[in-house]
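Example 267.
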Amino acid sequence: MANPLNDPLTHAQSRSDDDVILRARGVTVGFGPVLVLKDLDLDVRKREILGFVGGSGTGKSVLMRAILGLTPRRAGDIEVFGVNLRDAGPEERLAVERRWGVLFQQGALFSSLNVRQNIQVPMREHMRMSERLMDELALLKLEMVGLPRSAAEKFPSELSGGMIKRASLARSLALDPELVFLDEPTAGLDPIGAASFDALILKLRETLGLTVYMVTHDLDSLHSICDRVAVLGEKKVLRTGTIEELMRFDNAWVQSYFNGERALRRV
Ligand SMILES: Nc1ncnc2c1ncn2[C@@H]1O[C@H](COP(=O)(O)OP(=O)(O)OP(=O)(O)O)[C@@H](O)[C@H]1O
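Predicted structure in complex with adenosine-5'-triphosphate:
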């Protein structure tokens, strides 16, 4: 019989299925002859902050893009909010997309638009609203992410790295999503900036009931805000669990990551 401790889904499956907001099964993604992900399974639960780690080039961004439908998959099913994205027609897909927000690795703000206009891009794409309402909503989103009103008319080139991350987060919150995908949100921030960004994510989860899927290399973020961490390696999710659970996982990469010299320097 398979050892349940080696099953990355054991933890998730022990809870009710209603708790799962995103379910991936057998996901396979490749480029030409190279497979990056093979038969990958993953469950993301409602209202959790799930950290996603793995060595460089293991496919963390590819998986996120496959879930978002930006990279095609060769096999497998991805179900979000109970909708299997493979079977979903354009309308149903759009309805799902309206319920999630994304913060890409470099912030990915449009450089020719100011912050207010950037935040309004998803509103224009998905909703029909008056300019006045969109302006009010943009200011509200700025406030949510701790940016001053004066940031609204600034262009990305006029913002610090931390402000760009916050403005991008504000854009990802434009449509009041239930689920947000964050690709290395604290990369490039100084430790104080990173800690305050982490605190913001935590606060948004508490106040908005968000579910957060966060790719990160930041050990401090993993320790301070993630409920569970998923480890990507060997083309699949090797294990999902709390950091304490992962620290007991007999895998060379996991051991050097969580118990290695850099990890111990945190203490
Ligand atoms: N469009 C593409 N065409 C070909 N290969 C790609 C493409 N996108 C990603 N890859 C390859 O897929 C692999 C996984 O890339 P990915 O960016 O997902 O890694 P990652 O785990 O996010 O790495 P990092 O932590 O360094 O950001 C890499 O070998 C990359 O070169």
